Amino acid sequence: MIYPPVGGGVPPHQSMPENVKLDFEEARKVFNLSPRGSAALLRLALQKMMIHLGEDGTNIHANLKSLVQKDILPSRILKAIDMTRIVGNESVHPGRMLDEDRDAVAEHLFLFLNLVVEKGIAEQELIDEMYAKTPEGKRVNIGETDE
C-alpha cells in the first residue's frame, strides 16, 4: 500500500471555480480507489458548473441544452458533456455499468469537465482580456462587420 494514496485524472483547468475544483480534486484523489465514486463526484462538479454558468442546476440535461442554445457551450461538445451526466448517474446504480467500462469512462470525465470550463469560462475570459487591451477608439466598430 502506498501512502499517501496516488490519485488519478488530469489536473483541473486553471479557470475552474473553486467550489467545483474541490469536488474535482476529491474525484482525483479517489479515482484509483473508486472510479465509481470519482464519476459521481465529477457529476456533482458538473452540476455546480451549471449553476456557475447561470443555470439552476436542478436538471443537468436541460441546463446543458440551455447553455448550448445561449451559445455559451458549443453544440458539438454537448454529447461529451452529457456523457458525464449519464455516467455519473449510472455509476451510483448497481448493475448499470460494467466495472471495466466505468474505469475507462470515468477517466475521461475529468477531460470533459475541463472542456466545460474551457468553453464556458476560459474562452470568454480571454476574449474579455483582449477586448480590454483594444484601444477604446477601436472598440466602437467591434461586432459590426461580417468579416
Structure, described:
The protein is mainly alpha-helical. 64% of the residues lie in helices and 0% in strands. The chain has six helices and no strands. The chain has helices spanning 18-30, 35-52, 60-69, 78-91, 99-133, 136-139. α2 (35-52) runs parallel beside α5 (99-133), α3 runs antiparallel to α4 and α4 crosses α5. The protein is elongated. The relative contact order is 0.15. The model has no long low-confidence stretch (mean pLDDT 81).
Largest sheet: none
Count of strand segments? 0
Q: Give the SSE string.
A: HHHHHH
Q: Given the C-alpha coordinates, what overall shape results?
A: elongated
Let me know the average pLDDT.
Answer: 81
Using the CA coordinates, give the radius of gyration: 18 Å
Number of continuous helical runs:
6
Termini separation comes to 60 Å
SS-derived structural category = mainly alpha
Low-confidence stretches: none
Could you tell me the strand content as a percent range? under 5%
Helix content: 55-70%
Record keyword descriptors for this entry.
147 residues; mainly alpha; 6 helices; elongated
Summarize the structure.
With 147 residues, the chain is mainly α. Helices cover 64% and strands 0% of the residues.
Layout of SSEs?
Blueprint lengths: L17 H13 L4 H18 L7 H10 L8 H14 L7 H35 L2 H4 L8
